[in-house]
Write a structure and sequence with these properties.
about 375 residues; Aspartate Aminotransferase, domain 1; 2 domains; seven-stranded mixed beta sheet; binds pyridoxal-5'-phosphate
């Protein structure tokens, strides 16, 4: 069994994807080909925002967003303690200070009560100036943007939506990657919408930021490529990836997002009585980047993972370490306050992500859930 079956997906779409790739090879427009602009238009349209600017990966997408806001030295940026490293890495890379905030145990997303407290604390300490919140749509479910925006308005902060795992998710029919003043996603192969290499995108309704990001991504270009008006980076999505994504976006919209939600339902149906299953809030839709269960403790989790390996079932621990415990952030953490990260710390001990993708059959799900049951009933 595959954890995320990209082979099955490719076989389903092989004819269209091969033709798209061949078309790029024939035309040799490898950088900035027309497929890139077509994709940007389709993505913006799907998400429901004015601008989509594709780039080289999801990490660059976050960095480009912080660059557009001029985030740097002396700025505090709030970010969940339980997420992939990149969500916070870019904050430090820009010279700003990441402030880690605990998450909700049931949704895995930022705890808005603790977010407010954390902002107030930074204001009182007067060492850094609060500037932005990076909210993450972890495992496919959007963060609680109604509450996050209320807090952001109160303290005059920017909201950046890290939708690397959230593409396709919804709140009340509104699509993920439209909730931040700037939002980003990643097309890393295993993400809900993945390409065949690295890729990413930035979304915004703001014309000025869109122009800035489009400039930053190509060496700070001005009116043309060899007119450089600011220091930027080289971060383009190449034409091959765009051509592949155009085909995959079609499948994603037509059936993959529905299928993956059916798989999640089957999992939850079979597991809800025996483990803590993921909680999707009322009115929310997840794109199920991961299906993550919680066990009673670390020993049980590690035991289950081992048992699944014996049964030929892959599983992953997302994430084994909270950000505040990462060596790279040692200087960003007040160690006297470590107990404020209780939930994130606990999750790192207890979580296990099970095989999850749109091409899982009911039989596949049964094999996994039966094995989980067997282990827990021993
Ligand atoms: C994958 C991921 C990123 C980074 O995306 P890349 O395309 O790998 O650079 C950022 N944030 C989160 C939450 C992610 O899962």
């Amino acid at each position: 069994m595959e954890f995320r079956d990209l082979k099955k997906q490719y076989l389903m779409l092989k004819k269209e994807i091969d033709a798209s790739i061949q078309n790029v090879l024939t035309n040799t427009n490898f950088i900035s080909g027309k497929q890139v602009f077509e994709l940007e238009e389709k993505l913006a349209d799907y998400v429901g925002v004015k601008h989509c600017i594709t780039c080289a990966n999801g990490t660059d997408a976050l960095q480009l967003s912080l660059m557009a806001w001029g985030i740097g030295m002396g700025d505090a940026v709030f970010v969940p303690d339980f997420t992939f490293f990149a969500s916070a890495e870019v904050i430090s890379l820009m010279g700003a200070s990441p402030v880690f905030v605990d998450v909700r145990k049931d949704t895995f997303n930022i705890d808005t009560e603790k977010l407010r407290k954390s902002i107030q604390q930074v204001i009182e300490e007067k060492q850094f100036v609060p500037k932005a919140i990076v909210a993450v749509d972890l495992f496919g479910q959007p963060a609680e943007y109604d509450k996050i925006k209320e807090i952001a308005n109160e303290f005059h902060l920017f909201v950046l939506e890290d939708g690397a795992q959230g593409f396709g998710g919804e709140i009340s029919g509104k699509k993920a990657c439209s909730f931040g003043q700037i939002s980003t996603t990643s097309f890393f192969p295993a993400k809900p919408l993945g390409c065949y290499g690295d890729g990413g995108a930035v979304f915004t309704d703001n014309d000025e930021w869109a122009d800035l990001i489009a400039s930053f991504r190509i060496h700070g270009k001005g009116s043309f490529k060899y007119d450089n008006v600011r220091i930027g980076m080289n971060s383009r999505l190449d034409t091959l990836q765009a051509a592949i994504l155009l085909q995959k976006l079609y499948a994603f919209k037509e059936y993959e997002l529905d299928n993956v939600n059916n798989v999640a339902e089957m999992y939850t149906e079979r597991l809800r009585e025996i483990v803590e299953v993921p909680v999707i809030l009322d009115g929310y839709l997840s794109s199920w980047a991961q299906y993550t269960i919680r066990l009673t403790n670390g020993e049980e989790r590690n035991g289950l993972q081992k048992y699944l390996v014996e049964k030929g079932i892959p599983s992953m621990i997302y994430y084994p370490k909270p950000l505040h415990k990462q060596a790279a952030f040692a200087s960003c953490v007040d160690h006297e306050l470590e107990d404020q990260y209780q939930s994130a710390t606990e999750l790192c001990e207890k979580v296990l992500s099970l095989p999850m993708h749109p091409y899982m059959t009911e039989d596949n799900v049964r094999v996994v859930t039966d094995s989980v049951k067997e282990f827990l009933n021993r």
